[in-house]
Amino acid sequence: MSINIKSILEDVGKGAASLIMSKSTDPSYKTIIKEKKNDVTRRIDWEVEDYLIDSLRKHDVPAVILTEERDLVKISSDPSYLFVVDPLDGSLNFVMDIPFYSVSIGVAKYSGDPRMSDLIAGIIIDVQRDAYYYAEKGKGIFVKGNTVKPLGEALDKPIASIYMEPSISMDMFSKIKKIYELLGTFKVRTLGSSSLEATLASFGRFLLFMDIRNKLRIFDIAAAYVIAKELGAYIINPLNGSLDDLGILKQPHINILVTQSKKVMDTVIAAFKE
């Protein structure tokens, strides 16, 4: 069964964003309802995920949905697609009233053991900006409501988004320092929504986006992966190579580098290999 993926993702993604905005001033949606080993679930996460599942079911999509809170949800007896859903990427920003968070949905062809390379479409909704980025494999990218052209000479130094733990080893820290020196220095920002930051790096707004905490999951990067690929950006694990063969259903924890520049990618890889 063939479906209009773009139309469906636009509809359910924008609906989810509207729901988030409507609850942004309600303190009850910021409460923690479930605690996990390295994360928490808030009421907003649970209810937006509910909305996405129900919306995809109403669209009669022949799919299985991989969700952050409920794991696999089957909404068809004969699925053709796998939807990978992050209902709110940047939930702490939502709680803190920091206007930078997103809805992220990736789509792969359904199979018994789907890989990252099987992802065929993705949408990331920038909730507060009322903007979104949509990409479909082999068909390019569509942007609505935001300009993401590189800033060029408007910046005195390029900007990198780098996530690492305070407990980072001195050896790893020295490698980060070497990257900083080899790339001619840059400013560092971490904004709290990996899908949006990876997308900004894919467009060249950031020199690079890198997370070496080994904490990101498939939900965080599925849509951003498709966008990066369609833009010709590099999206890899900087410590051990390609992400293409990662099993989606295995839900591995991931280190990631996203950049438009081959020089940046080669510099980062070389520094970590030393």
TrEMBL record:
Annotated residues that bind Mg(2+) 1 are located at 68, 86, 88-89
Task: List this protein's GO terms for biological process.
Answer: inositol metabolic process; signal transduction
Q: Keywords of this protein's UniProt record, alphabetized?
A: Magnesium, Metal-binding
Q: Which cofactor does it need?
A: Mg(2+)
Report the GO molecular function annotations.
inositol monophosphate 1-phosphatase activity; metal ion binding
Identify the domain of life: Archaea
InterPro entries attached here? Inositol_monophosphatase-like
Protein name per Swiss-Prot or TrEMBL:
Inositol monophosphatase
Q: Which species is this UniProt entry from?
A: Thermocladium modestius
